[in-house]
Design goal:
The complex is a heterotrimer of chains A (282), B (329) and C (266).
Chain A lengths: L2 E11 L4 E12 L5 E5 L6 H6 L9 E6 L2 E3 L8 H6 E4 L12 H11 L4 H14 L16 H13 L5 E5 L7 H18 L2 E5 L3 H7 L2 E6 L2 E7 H5 L13 H13 L9 H11 L3
Parallel strand pairs in A: 3-8, 3-9, 6-7, 7-8
Antiparallel strand pairs in A: 1-2, 1-4, 4-5, 9-10
Helix pairs in contact in A: 3-4, 3-5, 4-5
Chain B lengths: L14 H4 L2 H17 L6 H20 L4 H6 L5 H13 L13 E6 H17 L6 H18 L4 E7 L3 H27 L2 H12 L9 H30 L10 H32 L18 H23 L1
Antiparallel strand pairs in B: 1-2
Chain C lengths: L1 E9 L5 E10 L4 E6 L5 H8 L7 E6 L2 E2 L5 H7 E4 L12 H11 L4 H14 L15 H14 L4 E5 L7 H18 L2 E6 L2 H4 L4 E6 L2 E6 L1 H5 L2 H6 L6 H11 L4 H13 L1
Parallel strand pairs in C: 3-8, 3-9, 6-7, 7-8
Antiparallel strand pairs in C: 1-2, 1-4, 4-5, 9-10
Classes of the chains: A alpha/beta (282), B mainly alpha (329), C alpha/beta (266).
């Protein structure tokens, strides 16, 4: 069950050249309600990787198994069966909106998947509620709302397809800090209430630190690290990974050095404050 | 990132590459006009003139350092047209002087041959994706079409005779080579001139129209912006297609009504992006001092050199000789 | 150098996006304008480059009023780099884009050629002159935008959320370039951003809220004012938020001191 990558290699064929975007990737993602972060430099293969998960791209070598459907496949499979189970939200997803009303746009996905007619309406409405779009906006044009709201509508459009695994490619890109926080909190709530597995590609280590449990690090098409975030941030070879520490850890390191605060891997404001209070008294 | 560049320009250092684009374009137009002035009569002198143009074309290709294969590839799109034209000449057009070259050959459109043709047509469409040399395969299949009509007279419905006349053959060759020459000359232009230079050259040639209040410079700017954004738009369209595919858009398994919505799901986002882009771009251009219609200089200066003068002179000479030969002898 | 007096602006006569704002920016200063989404900072940028006209009040640079008949001269004094790397890249190649503004200034081709090479090298794009925009990353396109602005040799350059769409490396490169430009060319730089870390690099900070200017001062001074920061509706960077909370919760002086040191470093 879930998604398995076995020795997956993928090449982008250019005009006269080709380069390996993915090199011998082995990966296992089970739909058991976790949040997985994917990070790595631009061009490391993150976007390419997730596009294999819903059949947009198919491996040149190796196999990808998505909920027991194998790709590449000798038989002709309807890729929509994959897309029903793995929902992919692209960068700047607000660009995919096009319908006359917000509700209609969210219904687009379920309609294409030929979901049960009676339930499309209610599922779309509840998806919109889950992303914080008020019912009064349902009949509005998707182009008359703010950019942040448009992004939420786009995410609702993918949620309405009821995927088991939700993949988001840099969901906070281009948003201001407040917008980023609100979006991440919303995604976290959805994750909690629907027990959905979230795969989040992000460059923002603060976000990955605060929300993900497991982090996958991509580098030049290879999987450099796949495991618990604590293990990542205490990894002896961390400095060679070209990654930043989350701000909370950077502060902890500083406080440890300057005022001998015991060093601990902490990711949220509350955790840090409690820790300080515990060890240093007024 | 994408490594394609817009247009068909192949970098090089030949004299043809270095010619002023205005001279190249005007020369092309003059040569094309001259070629079309030669009548198709099938007359000896006319054939020699066309042969002369063919020779010129080949010489130009060789001196441009553009691989001959590339130029021939430019003929692929019109392969069907060429074959069709030649066949029409041979099969249908009646010459004035019937000097037969062959015995009459009978072709049959019979029940057997028609069914064979259908089978062959379906087979060809299905099998062509596996064939490497598609052009040759196409020509082979054309020959098959006639061969089948030749050997299957059973259940005859309609039969016709074909005789190869000297005149028709000459006409067919004439028209064939004329089309080939004009395509090759035009390809040479696009292979040896950068798209921006073509745009600048066109602007330069049409500049006199400014006297008639035609905003040539503004139009050239519009073309330039379009050229700049085509690759970007293609990349963005691809992203939107993927996003909508992730929402279940599947062109193969959709009813007509659904297909319409799916196309709209692609078009509207592209429009929205383009409108926002137009607004941002207008602001950026305005802040950088662009005023529509106001005089501006260009970093790429088109300079006429000796070679340009000589080339233009030669072309005018060729055109004059052709006109003289065609109209005054 | 830049004087803004009682400036008000509203889009088509409705709600005021900018309400009675007054401030001045000294020549050669590195200034940031921060504010929540909708605070009016981008509108302010457009007003400063003359793309919008104030509904009331005045704007002037070196005593030159922002009037229609002065626009050509004003365009010679202030340039801008926008947020979207693709939507301000005019030229077919890097070279053509940097030259665009110079062509509008009707410079001689040989001079343009020199300037294009010089400013391209300054931003590290001298090997990319023949590249087309779709072959470049967002960060590279923004560097070209900076080169284009530099090439026009305006004294004031505005950066309107110019790093918002970039990845961390792109942001870092761009910030380094901006700081270098300020040091090397002594230009007046106005950086509009929602990232307070970026604002920390500047000499002077203006805070916008709901269309009004609620504070102006050095980042050090303003960052120590907890009440002010809380009223801005801005989300503070982790270390700054921690510092403010430490003060609010009356933590041990050691902690507050160490946190302030950390904030000053970054």
């Amino acid at each position: 069950m879930g998604i398995q990558f076995k020795d997956v290699t993928f090449r982008y064929k250019g005009f006269k050249t080709s380069y390996k975007a993915l090199d011998m990737i082995n990966l296992d993602i089970a739909p058991k309600g976790e949040i997985i972060g994917i990070c790595g430099h631009t061009g490391s293969g993150k976007s390419t990787l997730v596009q294999h998960m819903n059949g947009l791209l198919q491996a040149d070598e190796g196999t990808v198994s998505v909920f027991d459907i194998q790709l590449p496949n000798k038989k002709k499979i309807k890729l929509n069966t994959l897309r029903r189970r793995v929902g992919l939200v692209f960068q700047f997803p607000e660009y995919q909106l096009f319908e006359e009303t917000i509700l209609k746009d969210v219904m687009f996905g379920p309609k294409n998947l030929k979901m049960n007619h009676a339930s499309i309406d209610s599922i779309s409405k509840s998806s919109l509620k889950a992303v914080g779009i008020d019912a009064s906006l349902f009949d509005q044009s998707p182009f008359r709302i703010s950019g942040g709201q448009m992004r939420r509508v786009a995410i609702a459009g993918v949620l309405a397809m009821q995927p088991d695994i939700l993949v988001l490619d840099e969901p906070t890109r281009g948003l201001d800090p407040v917008g980023q926080k609100e979006l991440m909190e919303m995604l976290y709530d959805i994750h909690k209430s629907q027990q959905k597995t979230l795969l989040i590609i992000s460059h923002d280590m603060d976000i990955l630190g605060a929300y993900a449990n497991r982090i996958i690090v991509m580098n030049e098409g290879e999987k450099m690290f796949d495991g618990d975030k604590d293990r990542l941030f205490s990894h002896p070879k961390f400095d060679q990974m070209n990654l930043d520490y989350p701000s909370s850890i950077k502060v902890m390191k500083h406080l440890h050095k300057e005022i001998s605060l015991p060093y601990k891997l902490l990711y949220t404001m509350d955790e840090v404050i409690s820790h300080i209070k515990e060890h240093i008294h007024e | 990132m994408n490594n394609m560049t817009i247009g068909q320009y192949i970098p090089g250092n030949s004299w043809l590459h270095q010619l002023d684009p205005r001279v190249k374009m005007m020369s092309l137009i003059m040569l094309l006009i001259s070629i079309f002035l030669i009548p198709i009569q099938g007359n000896q002198v006319d054939l020699y003139m066309l042969a002369g143009y063919l020779l010129l074309t080949i010489l130009l290709i060789m001196s441009s350092q553009i691989p001959i294969l590339k130029v021939l590839q430019g003929l692929r799109p019109i392969l069907f047209l060429l074959t069709f034209t030649v066949l029409i000449q041979i099969l249908i057009v009646m010459p004035n002087e019937k000097v037969a070259l062959t015995q009459p050959v009978t072709f049959y459109l019979s029940w057997s041959s028609i069914s064979a043709l259908l089978v062959w047509f379906i087979f060809y469409q299905w099998s062509k994706k596996w064939v490497r040399f598609k052009t040759l395969y196409f020509l082979f299949s054309v020959i098959m079409v006639f061969f089948l009509q030749y050997i299957l007279p059973f259940g005859n419905v309609f039969d016709y005779e074909v005789i190869l006349y000297e005149e028709t053959v000459l006409r067919a060759l004439f028209i064939f080579f004329r089309i080939v020459i004009i395509i090759m000359l035009t390809s040479l232009l696009t292979f040896t001139t950068m798209t921006t230079d073509i745009n600048d050259g066109l602007e330069g040639i049409l500049l006199p129209l400014k006297w008639m209040k035609v905003p040539v410079d503004v139009l050239a700017m519009m073309v330039s912006l379009t050229l700049r954004y085509i690759p970007t738009l293609l990349i963005e369209t691809d992203k939107i297609m993927k996003a909508q595919a992730s929402r279940g858009v599947d062109f193969k398994e959709a009813s007509l009504k659904e297909k319409v919505t799916q196309v709209i799901s692609l078009l509207i986002p592209v429009f929205v992006i383009s409108f926002k882009r137009a607004e941002d771009l207008a602001n950026a251009m305005e802040v950088r001092g662009y005023v529509i219609g106001q005089k501006r200089t260009k970093i790429d200066v088109l300079k006429i050199k000796y070679t340009d003068f000589i080339s233009l002179f030669m072309v005018i000479l060729i055109m004059s000789l052709t006109i003289y030969q065609v109209f005054f002898t | 150098m830049i004087q803004v007096k009682n400036m008000t602006f509203s889009y088509n006569g409705q709600d005021e996006a900018i309400k009675n704002v007054s401030f001045s920016i000294e020549k050669g200063h590195f200034v940031s304008i921060v504010g929540h989404n909708g605070s009016g900072k981008s509108t302010l940028a457009k007003l400063l480059v003359g793309l919008l006209k104030p509904t009331s009040g005045s704007l002037s640079i070196d005593d030159l009023d922002y009037q229609d008949h002065n626009m050509v001269d004003i365009r010679k004094k202030v340039g801008i780099v926008f947020q979207n790397p693709d939507n301000q890249f005019v030229g077919v190649t890097v070279r053509h884009d940097i030259a665009f503004g110079l062509e509008n200034q009707q410079l001689e081709p040989s001079i343009m050629e020199e300037k294009v090479h010089y400013y391209a090298s300054l931003v590290g794009m001298e090997n990319f002159l023949e590249k087309e925009p779709h072959q470049l990353s967002g960060g590279q396109k923004q560097r070209v935008a900076i080169a284009s602005a530099l090439a026009m040799e305006q004294e004031i350059i505005i950066f309107d959320e110019a790093t918002s769409m970039l990845d961390p490396k792109g942001v870092k490169d761009m910030m380094e370039t901006i700081i270098n430009i300020h040091k090397q060319f002594k230009k007046t730089i106005i950086m509009i951003t929602h990232d307070l870390r970026q604002a920390g690099y500047t000499d002077d900070m203006l805070i916008m809220k709901d269309g009004t200017l609620i504070a102006q001062g050095t980042p050090s001074t303003l960052f120590q004012d907890v009440k002010l920061l809380r009223s801005t509706q801005l989300l503070l960077p982790f270390e700054l938020e921690l510092y403010e909370k430490a003060k609010e919760l009356n933590m041990n002086e050691k902690v507050i001191h160490a946190l302030w040191a950390y904030n000053s470093k970054t």
